[in-house]
Amino acid sequence: MSPRLALGAFVAALVLVPLVPGLPVFWITLLGNIGLAALVAMGLVLLTGVGGMTSFGQAAFCGFGAYATAVLSTHYGWSPWLALPVSLLVSGSAAVVLGLVTVRLSGHFLPLSTMAWGLSLYYLFGKIEMLGRHDGISAIPPLSLAGFELTDPRAIHYVIWGTVIAAAILTLHLLDSRIGRAIRALRRGQLAAESFGINVARIKLIVFVYAALLAGLSGWLYAHVQRTVTPTPFGISAGIEYLFMAVLGGAGQIWGAIVGAGLVTLLKEALQRLVPALFGNSVQIEGVVFGIALVALLQFAREGLWPHLARILPAPVRLAPKAAEALARRAFGGDRNRPLLVLDAARKQFAGLVAVNDVSFKVGRGEIVALIGPNGAGKSTTFNLITGVTKLTAGTVRFDEAPISGTSPQVIARHGIARTFQHVKLNPDMTVLENVALGAHLRGRAGLMAAMLRLDRRDEARLLAEAACQIERIGLAEHMMKPAGSLALGQQRMVEIARALAMDPELLLLDEPAAGLRHFEKAALADLLARLRAEGMSILLVEHDMGFVMGLTDHIVVLDFGTKIAEGPPDAIKTHPAVLEAYLGGAA
Ligand SMILES: Nc1ncnc2c1ncn2[C@@H]1O[C@H](COP(=O)(O)OP(=O)(O)OP(=O)(O)O)[C@@H](O)[C@H]1O
Predict the structure, then answer these.
(1) Are 393 and 290 in the same domain?
(2) Ligand 1 close to Cβ of residue 373 (< 6 A)
(3) Residues 6+ apart with CB under 8 A from 127
(4) Ligand 1, closest atom to CA 351?
């Protein structure tokens, strides 16, 4: 059975459920509640599971959606359908305002701030006169279609689940796209993502608003299903429940949101019946048992339930990309007599430690330059100064005559500077192909809506074909569709090079590219770099393997304790007294 068939079977079951003769309406209502919760949990899966931003305050966005439509349809007599865009606008605008503050926070500050506004918004809903304070708003009109009021839970069931399935499909489309790769890179590879020109702050805000819109949509539906809204379902405890649903279902798995919402809703319902039956009505310990059950479930399935379920479902077949129209290539124009990269008295001081001490050197066009030196000499820090990861204390870095020091990694990447990292920064759960395609992010155009509606296929095919081409170039074609984390470290370093090449850079910065490679792999890498140089690309590499460096480079810069002690062609460096002293000490 293909995944499409499995989805078809699920949809068919949802269509048939209300038609089952004798099925109590209560169960249909419960299923509708699961659907409403699944919409919120789906946003949280994207925000927390995929994007790595934990939010406890998601229920507040349901509140914005629900109250907006409640006010408009009761106080002003608007049709619920007309109020829908306003509900989404209110939730989305609130998310923009809160997101601008929240997504910049990191570590525990982020979830704490979501708790803070989750709490304050709950109290705010209960204080506003127009929202009916703690009594809320009642007599909200039901949804109606073609003049028929959808008051029957069976009819509303189709509206809710149609929305849930559509939201799941659109979200899956989004994740399987250029923007989706950027979203998936947030959790484990923000620095790498920025180094490939991805505006991480913007992508985070997009995810934040997207999750809020799903919550707002759920709130709008909730208002017209329940026909009354009060602050309680939009408080912090509801926010925690939604988070449980996302995590229990399988954080990071869109379908897991439905599983999690189903499990938590059914568990709560079951306990509300079972606990009084077992312990009597006077002992109200449902909440305690509920908490214990959730903790036990998390112990049993740390990755959530979806991965367990996915094992018995058909696995999606991952096909290598087909050939597509080639992406435009950068022209290595510039005057060959003028250097491409110039460091002028670049300095970096970490408190009392001078890691890079007024270092100056140039990288010419179509030249391979090596930056060498003993451990702790300041090579990686110099790389980080060039790529904007670390800010200069003094001095300047110019690329093609334009000063780039003081700008962000994302802006520097746009100049055509790509890099690899000393400690590999791939997303281990994404395929090799997807990791490499991330490098080509700036060469694609398709945005959020195009991705959701699958209007990005041509753009996407070109990006994937480019990624596949670079993977073939580094000799890892047979590993293209494997998760990057399953490759040996040396191979992962090569994947980083392919990712950098997918950006079509003019300057390639390689941090220890030969580390972990076997002899024949190093020879292949040297051959590749020589070919890139012949094509006009400039390369700056940090490398400890002197055989590799001496046989390949045009020019070598030597650092020791942050200071440049020598520079020149390989033959001169081999016998330079200061270099021998730095590497071999007194024995030289
Ligand atoms: N963020 C930081 N804060 C404080 N000190 C730092 C920081 N980053 C680097 N250093 C220090 O700066 C010096 C240079 O480090 P760097 O990593 O640039 O050296 P390296 O030449 O790349 O060494 P290796 O070959 O071992 O990677 C070291 O003494 C290191 O401890």
Answers:
(1) no
(2) yes
(3) 133
(4) 4
Lowest mean per-residue pLDDT among 111-120, 260-269, 284-293, 379-388: 284-293
Q: What is the mean pLDDT of the chain?
A: 92
CA distances from 211 to 13, 53, 183, 362, 393 (A): 27, 11, 12, 47, 39
Task: Determine contact, residues 553/522, Cβ cutoff 8 Å.
Answer: no
Q: Is the beta carbon of 374 within 6 A of some atom in ligand 1? A: no
pLDDT of residue 320: 81
Neighbours of 151 (CB within 10 A): 14
- The string of pLDDT tens digits covering residues 225-246 is 999 999 999 999 999 999 999 9
* Tens digits of residue pLDDT in 216-226: 999 999 999 99
The pTM for the full model equals 0.91
CATH number for 94: 1.10.3470
Residues 268 and 354 placed together within one structural domain of the fold: no
Q: Is residue 459 part of a domain?
A: no
Q: Is the beta carbon of 379 within 6 A of some atom in ligand 1?
A: yes
pLDDT, residue 173, reads 96
Q: How far apart are CA 438 and CA 179, in angstroms?
A: 9
Assigned domain for 329 exists? no
Q: Is the CB of 558 under 6 A from ligand 1?
A: no
Amino acid, single-letter form, for residue 261: A
The reply to whether ligand 1 has any atom less than 6 angstroms from the CB of 91 is: no
Domain carrying residue 89: 3-312
H-helix or E-strand containing 509? strand 507-511
Same structural domain, 20 and 78: yes
**The domain spanning residue 383 has which CATH number?**
3.40.50.300
Domains: count for the chain: 2
Separation of CA 521 and ligand 1 centre (Å)? 28
Residue in 379, 541, 558 to alter for ligand 1 test, most ligand atoms within 8 A of Cβ = 379
Ligand 1 centre from 569 Cα, in Å?
25
Q: Is 350 in the pocket of ligand 1 (CB under 6 A)?
A: yes
Measured by CA distance, the residue closest to atom 2 of ligand 1 is 350
Whether residue 73 is contained in a domain is answered as yes
How far does residue 561's CA lie from ligand 1's centre (Å)?
10
Interior angle at CA 221, CA 217 and CA 227, nearest 5: 145
Return the bridge partners of 372, or none: 558
**Which tens digit of pLDDT belongs to each residue from 467-515?**
999 999 999 999 999 999 999 998 999 999 999 999 999 999 999 999 8
ipTM over 0.90: yes
Does the CB atom of residue 391 touch ligand 1 within 6 A? no
**Assigned token pair, 252:** 């990071």
Is the residue at 320 inside a domain? no
Q: Whose CA is nearest to atom 10 of ligand 1?
A: 355
User: pLDDT by residue (tens digit) across 29-75?
Assistant: 999 999 999 999 999 999 999 999 999 999 999 999 999 999 999 99
On whether both 49 and 176 belong to a single domain, the answer is yes
Point out the ligand 1 atom lying closest to the alpha carbon of residue 356.
14
